[in-house]
Amino acid sequence: MTMLSRRRFLGSAAALPLAAALPARAATAIDVVATTGMIADAARAIGGEAVAVKALMGPGVDPHSYRQTRTDIVAMTRADLVLWHGLYLEAQMEQFMGELSARRQVVPVAEALPRERLLAHDTYENKVDPHVWMDPALWATPISAIHDALSRTIGGGPALLEENAAAYLATAARLDTYARKVLATVPEPARVLVTAHDAFSYFGRAYGFEVLGIQGISTESEAGLARIGDLVDTLVERKIGAVFVESSVPDRNMRALIEGAASRGHEVRIGGELYSDAMGVPGTYEGTWPGMIDHNVTTIAAALGGQVPPRGMDGRLTAGF
Amino acid sequence: MALTLAGTDDAATAGDAPLSVRGLTVGYGGSPVVFSIDMDVTPGAMTAIIGPNGAGKSTLLKAALGIVPRLSGQVAVFGRPLARARDRIAYVPQRASVDWDFPTTVIDVVLMGLYSRLGLLRRVKARHRAQAMECLSRVGMEAFADRQIGRLSGGQQQRVFLARALAQDADLYLLDEPFAGVDAATEAAIIRVLKALKDEGRTVVCVHHDLSTVTEYFDHVFLLNRTRIAAGPVATAFTAETLQQAYGGRLAEAQLDQLALA
């Protein structure tokens, strides 16, 4: 961890006395507010009945540009625990979270990762690429940080949530194994992942895929026509047959890319829609973090010529392959 | 934090019970696993929760702790809502349900039990290590302090988790099948520690799998098979009749004879 982020991680956790010392609530469950759906998913899975989790960002929401609403602020100032990602993912909420840390339990869960395991940001020198949930083995550390934060807030000792946390971590390990197996069946020259924005670098690093994002990592900077032209060249030269759209990012640049390639006689299909910064519909398998990863891995492998089980790792995917 | 209250009196008021459950129903996908359970744990007693496989023993414990959802029911811990009294409880889950495949030493595991006292930055001082070592020696594992937890035998791991629970210095200890799959030496060590807790006035509740050791280890039982069958001191609640009722008549005469029932 860099000095700055380690201090932030410990500082926000140390700013307050334990939740148990605050005026107690009568309800059985503690109130947890999570920024991203991926964090909320882990908090619910680990906390079980002992937590009531509110996620601020639903499906299709872009965390890079999300600003907290007044309802969000009310929820966060009343929560027993606020879990956010950090690593500048929630770029517009940084200042607010810093101020909130002085008054509530606020934990940036992704900042538990040591610096050496992180990738540099594509565009901004002093920042890192925040999309760590795309690599299940890497996301295990924030999952543990969530377990830790919940344990300390709920009380009752370390073993209370341990089974739930172990089960969730075991799922993460299985996802990693599944991804390795399935993605290895994609022929070598086809291991190029073209997506709407640079959310897949950790995925690429973990599973040996080259990743090409149309935009910079943040969806704040628009790609110019020239860049799209360069990308069409790349698609044509390397015979890339499938590109991917994302649920939380507009697909107009991807469509421009496909049209550009078609005009050069090269057919490029949309290999599928991936979940990058947000998960699927709540209540569905794809609306959970395991489902999101399972969906992405299976979709990418199938579209690029690999062999996949028809409905993913456990036969639970909504779409068949 | 030891309780001075001795209290094996069955008439202990519900308001003082270390754990009190009313109308607890737990179900998965609509079908109840445990149904309308009422339970008052006697303070200072060693209580066994017993029943056949699938009776809902672990589910009862987890629902009472608020970690699996319940369809209905109330839970009170020392007369207060669960959320307000969690720090008085230490829970030791079934050993096999946690995958201890990560690098942690035995002493670090025990130190986790002290987290609520270390402060949020968790600076471990010499006296914390000393407390952790003391808990380890109570379970006979002090020589293993710097070993990797994943490398120990099942029985040794179980003792380390018990040491961690001791470090929490709780008033109510809830253990889920603490003797399942452990060697005889470990079983003896564990029961010795649990009896010492009872002597200190703390309350111990175990989901227990072995009928043949109930009378030797416990003074109260809670017998269930999805619903409550019997509850009370071993002499009155652990009988041939109540057991036949709980086990649906599946216990053979010979098995009952061996249990040294009242």
Describe this structure as you would to a colleague.
The complex is a heterodimer of chains A (321) and B (262). By secondary structure, chain A is α/β, with parallel strands linked by helices. Chain A is built from ten helices and eight strands. In chain A, 40% of the residues lie in helices and 11% in strands. In chain A, helix 2 crosses helix 6 and helix 5 packs antiparallel against helix 6. Chain B is of the alpha/beta class and 262 residues long. Chain B has a six-stranded mixed β-sheet with strand order 6-7-8-3-9-10, with helices on both faces. A four-stranded antiparallel β-sheet of chain B has the order 2-1-4-5. In chain B, helix 7 links the parallel strand 7 and strand 8. In chain B, helix 3 packs parallel to helix 6 and helix 6 packs parallel to helix 7. The radius of gyration of chain B is 18 Å and the shape is globular. Chains A and B meet through helix 1, helix 5 and helix 6 of A and helix 2, strand 6 and helix 6 of B.
